[in-house]
Amino acid sequence: MSEQEYMIQMKDVNKWYGDFHVLKDINLNVKKGERIVICGPSGSGKSTTIRCMNRLEAFQEGNITIGKLELTEDVKRIQEVRRHVGMVFQHFNLFPHLSILENLILSPTWVRGTPRKEAIKTAMHFLDRVKIADQADKYPNQLSGGQQQRVAIARCLCMNPEIMLFDEPTSALDPEMIGEVLDVMSELADDGITMVCVTHEMGFAKKVADRVIFMDAGQIVEENTPHEFFDNPQSDRLKMFLEQILDH
Amino acid sequence: MKKQNKSSAPSVAFYNNPENRAIIYQILALVTIGLFTYFILDNMFDNIEKRGITTGFGFLSSEAGFGILQSLIDYDESDTHGKVFIVGLLNTILVSVIGIVMASIIGLLVGIGRLSSNWMVSKLCMVYVETFRNIPILLQILFWYNVVLASLPSPKQSISFFDSVFFNNRGLIIPKPLLESGFIGVIIAFILAIVAVIYLSNWAKKRHDETGEEFPLFWVSIGVLVGSPLIIFFLSGMPATLEIAALKGFNFKGGLTIIPELLALAFALSIYTATYIAEAVRAGIEAVPKGQKEAAFALGLKESIVLKKVVLPQALRVIIPPVINQYLNLAKNSSLATAIGYPELVTIFSGTSLNQVGQAIEIILMTMAVYLTMSITISMLMNYINARMQIKGR
Amino acid sequence: MATFERLETRQAPANTKGPIHWAKENLFSSVLSSILTLFSLYLMYITLPPLLDWMIFDATWSGTKEEIVNEGARWIFIAEKFNLFVYGFYPEELYWRPNLALVIFVVYVIGFRRIDNTKVRAFIILSFPVITYLLVAGGFGLEHVPTDKWGGLLLTIIVASVGIIASFPIGIIFALGRQSHMPIIRTISVIYIEFIRGVPLITLLFMSSVILPLFFPEGMEFDKLLRALIGITLFQAAYIAEVVRGGLQAIPTGQYEAADSLGLTYWKKMGLVILPQALKISIPNIVGSFISLFKDTTLILIIGLFDILAMVTLTNSDTSWLGFETEGYVFVTMIYWVICFSMSKYAKAIATKYNTER
């Protein structure tokens, strides 16, 4: 497998918070167009892992390469990497003082220097895709959680990223709104975008993921196809975890 | 809502009906206040008559008969108490404006410094805030006046800078700018520069909208605002000179003297108020959720844009109201000038004039009215600003 | 498909922790940061050693005025004038009375925190002012000490305490008044609060000092201290009113509704349900307001009362001890700083405690 085909390569990544060993020897390679789901108990380091991919978290050992760019400490390099990676947060993080439309065109106009009219056209196109075009002039606090998260997804898409990272995108939503967000994410997956998603939504994982990864205590414990992962867990820890979540 | 049948509605005693009760209570309150006011006023007029104090505002046109240490307009002893009021008011405004500007600068720097990633800077800023916030402002004023400024040398041995600025126990003596008639050109140039900058910023924004290209607006604006008046100044043959003070005998003649009373008051007020402004700045910036910066950075935005477009707009909404409140406090605290004799409104009007004229009620009420006007104006301004800045929600 | 064995945790690599790493991250992380660090060290170098020299190492701690050789602070002045600073003009042979009041205060505070009984607590709160007044002012067989003899720290503490205690209930009344549905009561409260908050304290002190006596029949002697206390109390009450109003607004309407539906009258509702919660929420701000009041007591020197700050000028008018103003100011500064800083730390501690309790 030539390295050109990998969108994300994490090699022997280790991270400490002070003396607390948070990520242990993370090795993870994601091919172009692959859909990865990472799950595990809280504190297992799954969020930290994907936040390393766009350098919202730093790491002390190992290296990470996004596409052809190696993630270093250089600010310019980091900005470049972030132009290719979109991130959707658990708490949406929309900019409350800007309208929905302004939220979406902020980055294209200031990072890529896109003229405003063009940026608006692109923004409306993506708002349409996430089925929320009629709210373009509203402000984030006027929308429901599910609507806000869809806007957040559209905001990422306006930058045409090659990789989309999702950090527990539905964990802060009321149950009846989870579906609308997962639907949007499934459609994105069908379009062939490379996705790494941290989530507890096992239905989504079964439907969409190419690979499911289980993390516990800072390391990757098991990875497999969804079918094998859920029906045939190998490690004891994964067996225990699945029992706990499927008990609901 | 169906109207109840008159026959089935229970009858309520007059005094148990809550609406009636409310009316009764309010009438009682009004009557009590009315009686109290009558009692007070009755005694007051009695006492005034007995002490031979005149009433009314006639004293405002009578001669004051005392000198004032520093005045922004022409004043001498033959001027009226009405003019004393104006001089005092102007001095209050003067020291308040100076204090506000200095306090804002110091407060902004210290507030940002508190959040610095440099441990030393952050801790020193904290020490600053904790030290000066816990010392009463009056004590700080007296300390500056009686300890720091009083220990300065006499004029003959002044501390001097570039032979034109002198610091001694009579004050800070700086060169006095003498403006000739040609200077009006420089002022016009400055006003035009401001207009130009406004047009420039509109143009830059349009250009960015259309082409996406950025323009170094900040530096160009500074250049225009500073450069054009300067150019006109030199082109019109430098229509201004500096009158430098010279030591003649025991004191300096010429130049502009900033009296130590003003210096002490300005320093103390600025340093003290800056502690509150610093805390407000810090709280405002910390109030912006961490996720906002993360989302902005994750979108690839660079630090300066993140600050300008995401962090500051949200932080300012939290910072501005308490800071304006602090400005008001500074203006009110300027009244402590009485303790060191700086001739602002309270010192000369509620102080010297009151002692001369004896009409305490009129004078103190006039003084209070000034501050009340300030407060109410600022309040209304705040409400307007808050309404405009509201983050729209459900 | 892959499974992995459990890995051992390791120590963080040596170059990412320890004091050198910390210094690199926090003091020298960039060129600008390094410059700032060096500049800060320079600032400390030029201010701290001279300050410490003056205050401690070169200071004169004992001996007589004639024997002074050191260049630093001459603390013997403070020792000489200590009683003036602390007790003002209070007769020396009667010092035991304010001292006793202080001891009783400490005992009361300890007792208040230990004993949970409401009746006992109410007794403590109500009896304290009476006992303190009797001790300090006299009466009941104790010799009368007129208020113009009260001064220094004693006077500062008395003015602050009376201001705090008296303004509290008045402030609560006005806070309730401002929330009232009765328009006249609300208007009166708003006018009072906005008027007081809009003017400087010194003008109120002038008003209570000069104008107040005019409001009462001639011949009614108004103690100078009493006038100042009235001014300060009325001032503080308006600020307390705003603080309590903030607390009242933070109570969910559900609480008001629940109390109403239980059939409680207005005063019972306020006293048993709403106010206890509102006051609890407001405690940090109330303590903050008191700290401000404590600092504001210095203003009474402008109307001719001799608090501890006034003592600095007074002690320097003694012809045999001239020129010790710096020591006086530094001494008073330290006292105020210690007291205010302690109170603000206490306020923060309470705030944290109540935040975790919720």
Give a verbal description of the structure.
- The complex is a heterotrimer of chains A (248), B (394) and C (358).
- By secondary structure, chain A is an alpha/beta fold.
- Helices cover 40% and strands 25% of the residues of chain A.
- In chain A, the strands form two sheets. Chain A has a six-stranded mixed β-sheet with strand order 6-7-8-3-9-10, sandwiched between helices. A four-stranded antiparallel β-sheet of chain A has the order 2-1-4-5, with helices on one face.
- In chain A, a hairpin with a 2-residue loop joins strand 9 and strand 10.
- The N and C termini of chain A lie far apart (40 Å).
- The model of chain A has no long low-confidence stretch (mean pLDDT 91).
- By secondary structure, chain B is of the alpha+beta class.
- Chain B has two domains: 241 residues, MetI-like (MetI-like fold); 57 residues.
- Chain C is an all-alpha fold.
- In chain C, helix 6 packs across helix 9, helix 8 packs across helix 9 and helix 10 runs antiparallel to helix 11.
- The two termini of chain C are 48 Å apart.
- The model of chain C has no long low-confidence stretch (mean pLDDT 88).
- Chains in contact: A-B, A-C, B-C.
- At the B-C interface, helix 1, helix 3, helix 4, helix 10 and helix 11 of B face helix 2, helix 7, helix 8, helix 11 and helix 13 of C.
Helix/strand layout:
The complex is a heterotrimer of chains A (248), B (394) and C (358).
Chain A (H helix, E strand, L loop, with lengths): L5 E12 L2 E12 L3 E5 L6 H8 L7 E6 L2 E2 L4 H10 E4 L11 H13 L3 H14 L15 H13 L5 E5 L7 H16 L3 E5 L3 H7 L2 E6 L2 E6 L1 H6 L4 H11 L2
Helix pairs in contact in A: 3-4, 3-5, 4-5, 5-6
Chain B lengths: L17 H34 L29 H34 L4 H15 L3 H12 L10 E3 L3 E4 L2 E4 L1 E4 L3 H29 L5 H19 L4 E4 L2 E3 L2 E3 L2 E3 L1 H28 L2 H9 L4 H31 L11 H13 L2 H30 L5
Antiparallel strand pairs in B: 1-2, 2-3, 3-8, 4-5, 6-7
Chain C lengths: L1 E2 L15 H8 L4 H27 L18 H12 L8 H19 L3 H20 L14 H28 L3 H16 L2 H11 L12 H27 L2 H9 L4 H31 L13 H6 L9 H33 L1
